[in-house]
Structure formats: structure tokens, C-alpha cells
Amino acid sequence: FKRCPELMYRALTLHNNVIRRAKYANCGSTVQQEGDSYTLVFHDAFDAVAFCLQVHGLLLLLCMNHACRNA
Question: Strands (DSSP E) along 1-71, which ranges?
């Protein structure tokens, strides 16, 4: 955050949006959140695994889009 606060704020905002989007899509609830750290609960293990896969895929897509724009 110290070297590029604007860039880090944007990255944190994108990260949080991905987490929230996947949480709602997979019936999750937030127990606690601070910065980029979340404690979430899900109805069952299937929902939790689906959440993880969705977050991983969305963050990878964001990284790939960023890399393509900056190539």
C-alpha cells in the first residue's frame, strides 16, 4: 500500500467484489471481514468448494485481463 496506494486500493476493491459475488452465488454468509481477509460460512461443503473454484477462476480471469492490457 505504501508504494502504490491507488493501485492497491483498486486491487482490494476488485478482490472484495469477487469474494462478495461468489459468496452470494454460493449461499455464503460473512462472519467477519477485515481488509482482504474473510471468514465465511456455507450451507454445505459443496457450496464452499463451489465458492473457492469460482473465486479462483474470477481472480485468474482478472489477472489475465490485466496482463493482456499491459502487454
Answer: 28-34, 37-42
User: pTM for the full model?
Assistant: 0.85
Handedness of CA 20, 24, 26, 28 (dihedral sign): positive
Burial of 68 (0-12, 13-18, 19+ CB in 10 A): exposed
Q: Where are the beta strands (DSSP E) in 4-69?
A: 28-34, 37-42
List, for residues 42-63, the tens digit of each pLDDT value. Answer: 999 999 999 999 999 999 998 8
Contact of 30 with 23, CB cutoff 8 Å? yes
* Angle value at C-alpha 46, between 42 and 47, nearest 5 degrees: 40
